[in-house]
Specification:
333 residues, alpha+beta, 3-stranded antiparallel sheet, rod-shaped
Length: 333
Amino acid sequence: MWQENSSLFGHPQCQEWVNGTEGALYQLGNTLLMLGYMGGSGVFGALYIFSFLAPSFLCHALWGWLTLCGVDVFAWNVLLVALCGLQLAHLLLRLQQHAFLPGELRGLYAAVFRPLGVPPDTFKQVARAADSRVHSLGVDETYALEGKTPINQLSFLLSGRVRVSQEDQFLHYIFPYQFLDSPEWESLKPMKEGTFQVTLTAETECRYVSWKRRKLQLLLSKERYVARLFSVMLGSDIADKLSTLNERLLAKAGQRVDIRLQSLCYVLSPTPSPRQGRGDGQGLGGAADSDPAPPSPEPIHSDSPPGDSSPETLPTRFKRRRAPLAPTDTPEL
């Protein structure tokens, strides 16, 4: 049976094994090949793998040329060496492109964008939209002036602390990894123009990255993922700023102002002059004041005499006809 099937797939079986070894080049090539396949994943893992595979195939090519004298063995291994070299060049180019970003932008990616699962290539698009530049503000240097500075950019604070004020009254601080002008950005439509309603002053040495409005809007219109990313980041930043204002703005009775009230605009804007009147319809609060008063509630049946209808005799829940508004005067903080 064994003698009848003395060939395997048309090739004769080995009659005897060679006692010698193939030489140092062959052994070294296989050792490097084994070490190369122990690499991990990712860019650095691939860099490790191809760094070992390239010299391994080179050793096999030399072994095929000098010892085995086989043209096919030499040609295949030379081709594999060339492919590994191309892969190494591609990986090194990717690492070099990441190294071109300033250290502060790399820190921004590690602290903000990487936890959100943003790929490095997407962050590079965002950084290129900001020209990969980091700007600086000196102590007491103004980023924006109330009523004068146009809203033509969006900035993100990397380090330092910025003071936000309105009519020389302090509102809140802006800390690192927060937008400088997220409310102003969201308050304007894409093709509209406007000016800052607050003043932003650096209290310490500040560093920030800034995107020009039109350039960033062009990127957001092309990349839907980047548009959703900025929408989430801006919404969270505005919510944090409103929460900070809610903690600081107190009503005259000592109760905290509810930021959901439409009349909060009175707190953040100057009180209208008497000549303007209260029925001019300006602002959300003005629209609320111009509405007609609600109709009087139905007569309440109680045990009191018919002629006694003074407010003191009514139950407490019927004494208030509408929800209280936020104070029209800006409280001292």
